[in-house]
Amino acid sequence: KAGVTQTPRYLIKTRGQQVTLSCSPISGHRSVSWYQQTPGQGLQFLFEYFSETQRNKGNFPGRFSGRQFSNSRSEMNVSTLELGDSALYLCASSLVVSGAGELFFGEGSRLTVL
Amino acid sequence: GDSVTQMEGPVTLSEEAFLTINCTYTATGYPSLFWYVQYPGEGLQLLLKATKADDKGSNKGFEATYRKETTSFHLEKGSVQVSDSAVYFCALSDRYGTASKLTFGTGTRLQVTL
Q1: Half-sphere exposure (CA, 13 Å, Cβ side) for B107?
Q2: Which of these, A92, A49, A40, lies nearest to A68 by C-alpha position?
Q3: Sign of CA dihedral A93, B80, B32, B7
Q4: In three state form, how does the secondary structure of chain A look?
Q5: What are the pLDDT tens digits along chain A (114 aa)?
C-alpha cells in the first residue's frame, strides 16, 4: 500500500513568488492535514481538509491556502513568499474523520525562500 | 491556548540504558495524547497514543501513561537500542479528541550509542 506522497520534495523560490505543493493521501483516506515544520517554531498545524471542505485552520496568514480535490488529493499554496516561509511542509492523511485516529505523514516538501 | 512542552535534547544514551523523555501539556476539554517518532530521512510515524486519563499507550517496548493530575505523558523504554535513535514528538489533539489537528512539542532528539 503506497504511503502519503508529497511533491516536489525540494524547491527553491525567491521572495514575492508563490508556490504550490501537492499531496496524495493513502488510498481510501479522505482527511488530509498540512503542517509547517521549522527549527524555531517546530511543527505547526496549517489546515485540514475532508471531502473537499476545510474543517480546521491554524493561525497562519491568508497567504497560506489549500484545497482538496474529489479524489482526496490536496494542494497547498503560499503566495507572496517571505524568507520566514522557508520550512519543511508536511502532509498527513487519516482514515477516520473524528477521534484519536492515526495520522500518516509524508516525507515533506522542503521549501527554501531566498 | 493548548501547548506541549518537551524536555530539551539531544539525549544521548548507551545501548540498553533506560529512557525517559518528559512531556507536559496544557489543554482544555478532553484531548488525546500521542507520541510520534521521526527516523532520519523519514516522515513522522505514530509510536503510541492514549485517549483518556490513566490510559497507558505502548508499542515496540515504549510506554507512556496519560496523567491528568500532573498533565503529563512521559515516554519510557526500559532498554534502548541503536535503532531507536530518532526525534520523538509529543502531541495532543484538540479538545474533542480529534487527531487531525495536533499540537506538537518541539521534539527531542535521541542518540543511542554502542
Answers
A1: 18
A2: A49
A3: negative
A4: CCCCEEECCEEEECCCCCEEEEEECCCCCCEEEEEEEECCCEEEEEEEEECCEEEEECCCCCCEEEEECCCCCEEEEECCCCHHHCEEEEEEEECCCCCCCCCEECCCEEEEEC
A5: 679 999 999 999 999 999 999 999 999 999 999 999 998 888 999 999 998 999 889 999 999 999 999 999 999 999 999 999 999 999 999 887 666 678 899 999 999 999
Q: Which residues of A touch B105 (CB under 8 A)?
A: 42
* Assigned C-alpha cell, B113: 550509542
Q: Taking all residues of chain A, what is their mean pLDDT, rounded to a whole number?
A: 93
Query: Residue B102: is its pLDDT beyond 80?
Result: yes
Q: Tell me the residues of A at the B interface, defined by beta carbons under 8 Å apart.
A: 3-4, 31, 33, 35, 42-45, 48, 50, 55-56, 58, 90, 92, 94, 96-108
CB pairs under 8 A between A and B: 72
